[in-house]
Amino acid sequence: MTGARPALDRESAIAAYLKYADRMPGLAPGQLPAETCDVANILAIADQFDLIIFDAFGVLNSGAEAIPGALQAISSLRAQDVELAIITNDASNAPAAIIERHRNRGFDFSLESLVSSAKYIVPMMKRHSDVTRWGVMAPAHWPIDQLPGQAWFLGDDDSDYDTAEGFVLIDSDAWNEKRQRRLETNLANNPRPILVGNPDICAPMGDFLSVESGYFAHLAADACGVMPECVGKPYREVFDDILQRYPDIDPQRVLMVGDTLHTDILGGLAAGIKTLLVTRGGFLDGYDDLAGLYDRAGFWPHFRAPAIGAGLE
């Protein structure tokens, strides 16, 4: 990520998540916790879990820096022999590069502990066997040659859009308003599949929220009436991937930790596992009406903490 992408204010991001909630996984009443329990940090409940899954941005790090206390929390969990994993919607970087960045921050995650939404982009495309020409939203360094059929980067030429039989939105780092207008207009005139490798609407990048490809996918869908198809949180493939690696662990002893209600927490609830929402250093940093947000969303987490390592700094 270069930091060139546009920013989005939090209220607009919340409004977008609420507006597009019907495009995300639904929850049955039995999947909702009875209440949200406030805890000091993740160590206060660690003995209840054998596997803990983390979102990265807003939980482990904000931008390039580790969130205060996160390193100490992970170290303590390691000492308790809790299995740890990461689910990320960062589809723009190779898994090895993602892990290396975490190691540079001081975390000791292994490549085997990571599941990225990028893993499911090609299988999603292959489900559209009748589509062979794809226009792709991604920066120029992205390995587009790994995609099936003919694929090219969407740029400023109308032919990039006219000749595509489908669109894959992976990363918004090189995206801009003019390209978005081209995409929407083209789809309105000729609706085609919209596939999304990163369904996030925004991501915390330190002192701002970057606009992610999920946001642009929903705008494009509004223009043409085509339901976007997504991989990554809150959708099931990434959660099933982790759970299948630990078949002997009871799902009730698995915890999903995230900073965003409609990706991390919704995804964990839909997967049938416990959830912890953190409110400092990520999407909800400084937000003062969580109860109101729960009411508007219609769901809430099992636990809430300021940060995974609050008090451990």
Automatic annotation (TrEMBL):
Database matches in SUPFAM superfamilies: HAD-like (SSF56784)
Protein's name in the database: HAD family hydrolase
Gene3D superfamilies (UniProt xref): HAD superfamily/HAD-like
GO MF term list: phosphatase activity
GO cellular component: cytoplasm
InterPro entries (alphabetical): HAD-like_sf, HAD-SF_hydro_IIA, HAD_sf
